[in-house]
Specification:
- There is one protein chain.
- The radius of gyration is 21 Å and the shape is globular.
- The relative contact order is 0.14.
- The protein has helices spanning 16-29, 41-44, 51-68, 85-94, 99-104, 106-113, 120-134, 148-165, 207-214, 236-244, 247-258, 264-290, 293-321; strands spanning 3-8, 34-39, 75-79, 140-142, 175-177.
- It has 2 domains: 3-184 and 293-322, Rossmann fold (3-Layer(aba) Sandwich); 204-288, Tyrosyl-Transfer RNA Synthetase (Orthogonal Bundle), CATH 1.10.240.10.
- It has a 3-stranded parallel β-sheet. A two-stranded parallel sheet has the order 4-5.
- With 330 residues, it is mainly alpha-helical.
- Helix 9 runs antiparallel to helix 12 and helix 10 crosses helix 12 (264-290).
- Bound molecules: tryptophanyl-5'AMP.
- Residues 5-9, 17-18, 21-22, 40, 43, 129, 132-133, 141, 143-144, 146-147, 182-184, 192-194 line the site of tryptophanyl-5'AMP.
Length: 330
């Protein structure tokens, strides 16, 4: 069974972008692969953040993942900062990471541009991400399209470490796994759906809110009047249909869009119904989990213990290959 690793930041909101781009895929993968999923709180502190809400956001993200269908009997779910080997390996990998590659990362450039003083942690963010995956010798990384550049760099870091130190122990070069909805735009149709841009539909929005948000959402910009035929391939609403509607409905939607048989509101109503049907049980499970916070923290504690055991094994090999004095021999 191939080892799978992926992570999600405790942004405070599981939305249909990160759900369709990644988490829905995680739920499917857990029955066929050896899966490890992490709430990556150490990544979340690379930008200005609210200290008081970091821990509750971390728990809330774990609640979301479990409610969405991650099953701790079939995969490991844990909080990144609970396994200190992530930061240790990250430091070691920093020493083989080319600075130029870090400076070229689009996500770094975007985020750095938006602030006056850029912390080094933001630049080194992808090194920590590489450590996350390499620590568990994972072969596959289910992510959305926005993470592909980080994965390319991760493979470069693995190659460099392997060629310098990999004598009898090497890191696999992890490959991305994309879903069909690898890039969900925000409801404004401008940028990717993201909590920080306020253009999301949350997995926990009520049926009324889902409909209120969908109604004004951007569609194919060329479709100005009801009679204009549209192009589903240029419509974010159609992308979301691909995540929530069965194939026959998708075909019907695409046909009625191209022939202007339906208006955009007709198409959105069908989508709203399918979304509400899919999300209602997730929302209800999340409510149950929130009512039993101890069960969630216990799941995370058990997950961290399992992850830690695997991480420790890798670090013993890594430390040895890099020539450190074994503390037991000192
Ligand atoms: P994050 O927390 O921004 O997003 C979590 C996952 O959701 C995907 N995603 C999307 N996919 C499609 N459309 C969208 N609008 C959308 N928004 C988010 C992301 O691609 C991601 O797969 N750096 C990572 C977290 C991370 C990680 C890792 C991932 C840390 N270590 C190791 C994989 C492996 C991030 O910020 O994801």
């Amino acid at each position: 069974m191939a080892r799978v690793f992926s992570g999600i930041q405790p942004s405070g909101e599981l939305h249909i972008g990160n759900y369709l781009g990644a988490v829905q895929n995680w739920v499917q993968l857990q029955s066929q692969h050896d899966c490890i999923f992490s709430v990556v709180d150490l990544h979340a502190i690379t930008q200005a953040y609210d200290v008081a809400t970091l821990a509750p956001r971390t728990v809330e993200m774990a609640v979301g993942l479990l409610a969405a269908g991650l099953d701790p009997e079939r995969c490991i779910v844990f909080v990144q900062s609970h396994v200190p080997e992530h930061t240790e390996l990250s430091w070691l990998l920093n020493t083989v990471t080319p600075l130029g590659e870090l400076e070229r990362q689009t996500q770094f450039k975007d985020k750095a541009q938006r602030q006056e003083s850029v912390p080094a942690g933001l630049l080194n963010y992808p090194v920590l991400q590489a450590a996350d995956v390499l620590l568990y010798l994972a072969a596959l990384v289910p992510v959305g399209e926005d993470q592909l550049q980080h994965l390319e760099l991760m493979r470069e870091i693995a190659r460099r470490w392997n060629s310098r130190f990999g004598n009898g122990f090497t890191f696999p070069e992890p490959q991305p796994l994309l879903s069909t909805t690898k890039r969900v735009l925000g409801l404004d149709g401008q940028a990717k759906m993201s909590k920080s841009l306020g253009n999301t539909i949350s997995l926990f929005d009520s049926p009324e809110t889902i409909w209120q948000k969908l109604k004004p959402a951007a569609t194919d910009p060329a479709r100005v009047t009801r009679k204009d035929p549209g192009n589903p391939d240029l419509c974010n609403i159609f992308t979301i249909h691909q995540g929530f509607s069965p194939p026959a409905t998708q075909e019907q939607v695409a046909h009625n869009c191209r022939t202007a048989g339906w208006g955009c509101l007709d198409c959105k109503r069908v989508l709203a119904d399918n979304m509400i049907a899919a999300l209602t049980p997730i929302r209800e499970r999340a409510q149950e989990l929130r009512a039993r916070p101890q069960r969630v923290t216990e799941t995370l504690r058990a997950g961290a213990a399992k992850a830690e055991a695997l991480a420790r094994r890798t670090m013993t090999e890594v430390r040895r290959r890099m020539g450190f004095l074994d503390p037991r021999e000192a």
